[in-house]
């Protein structure tokens, strides 16, 4: 019987400093300990070509990048990652955890920067070959608090105005409102371990991991 958790895809979303990478790493460790085949990817990046595109996107020197060019570069990075690793991994039955995915482009370039959201979705469907997460964990944090948690050395996107980042946060919440079954909003107002307890419940439910291990049967 094919397990319910074969080929499952979970994305981690949220604005700057909301704890995506922290929680994605914790879920990765958790599933590995359970001997569940799992792969952790990040966007933009994850494979050589996509990491090179990441460099272009985040370089503070690229002040003249247009919003359309920026959107397409995120999509190019995603298309490469999907074809090179994500699709084959899902096919093999690996659980794929992705630190950001298409929702990031909708929130940052769409809601944040005014790129047409429907156009992003159409290009997104092409870039991803229609591959989408079945579960998205959206970490929602006060914008200023999140930004204060990011590195002292800011990248091109982090350097944008507070107003921009507030629009991104609103965009994410709008996405969640439209797709409440897929996108679970997690308020980041507790420590990492407490947040992980909430995350773990969503992951267990999505992957069909039983709450308690099956009892050992006596002969
Ligand atoms: N629940 C939490 N409480 C307090 N600090 C946290 C919590 N979760 C993460 N942090 C800390 O906040 C900082 C940002 O976390 P993390 O890098 O996981 O966020 P992120 O969403 O991946 O950020 P970015 O958008 O920059 O990629 C890190 O120093 C991390 O240790
Ligand atoms: Mg991160």
Topology (SSEs and partners):
Elements: E1 9-14, H1 20-33, E2 38-42, H2 48-58, H3 67-92, E3 95-99, H4 102-112, H5 117-128, E4 135-140, H6 143-148, H7 162-178, E5 183-187, H8 192-207
Parallel strand pairs: 1-3, 1-4, 2-3, 4-5
Overview of the structural elements:
Helices cover 52% and strands 12% of the residues. The chain has 219 residues and is α/β, with parallel strands linked by helices. It has a five-stranded parallel sheet, sandwiched between helices. The site of magnesium ion (MG) has 3 residues, from helix 1.
Envelope shape: globular
Structural class: alpha/beta
Strand order of the largest sheet: 2-3-1-4-5
Give the overall average pLDDT: 94
Q: Which hetero ligands occur in this complex?
A: adenosine-5'-triphosphate, magnesium ion
Question: Ends: how far apart?
Answer: 25 Å
Q: Using the coordinates shown, work out and report the CATH topology.
A: Rossmann fold
Number of extended strands: 5
What series of H and E elements makes up the topology? Answer: EHEHHEHHEHHEH
Tell me what portion of residues adopts beta-strand conformation.
5-15%
Q: How many individual helices?
A: 8
- Named at the architecture level, the CATH assignment is 3-Layer(aba) Sandwich
Instruction: Please give the domain count.
Output: 1
How would you name the CATH homologous superfamily? P-loop containing nucleotide triphosphate hydrolases
């Amino acid at each position: 019987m094919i397990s319910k958790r074969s080929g499952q895809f979970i994305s981690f979303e949220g604005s700057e400093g909301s704890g995506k990478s922290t929680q994605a790493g914790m879920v990765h460790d958790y599933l590995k300990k359970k001997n569940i085949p799992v792969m952790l990817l990040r966007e933009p990046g994850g494979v050589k070509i996509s990491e090179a595109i990441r460099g272009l996107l985040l370089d503070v020197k690229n002040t003249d990048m247009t919003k359309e060019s920026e959107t397409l570069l995120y999509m190019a990075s995603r298309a490469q990652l999907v074809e090179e690793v994500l699709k084959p991994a899902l096919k093999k039955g690996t659980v794929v955890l992705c630190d950001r995915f298409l929702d990031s482009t909708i929130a940052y370039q769409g809601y944040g920067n005014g790129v047409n959201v429907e156009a992003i979705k159409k290009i997104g469907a092409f870039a991803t070959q229609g591959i989408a997460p079945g579960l998205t964990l959206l970490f929602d944090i006060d914008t200023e608090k999140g930004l204060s948690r990011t590195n002292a050395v800011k990248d091109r996107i982090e350097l944008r105005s507070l107003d921009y980042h507030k629009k991104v946060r609103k965009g994410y919440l709008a996405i969640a409102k439209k797709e409440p079954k897929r996108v679970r909003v997690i308020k980041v107002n507790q420590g990492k371990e407490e947040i992980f307890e909430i995350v773990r419940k969503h992951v267990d439910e999505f992957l069909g991991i039983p709450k308690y291990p099956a009892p050992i049967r006596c002969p």
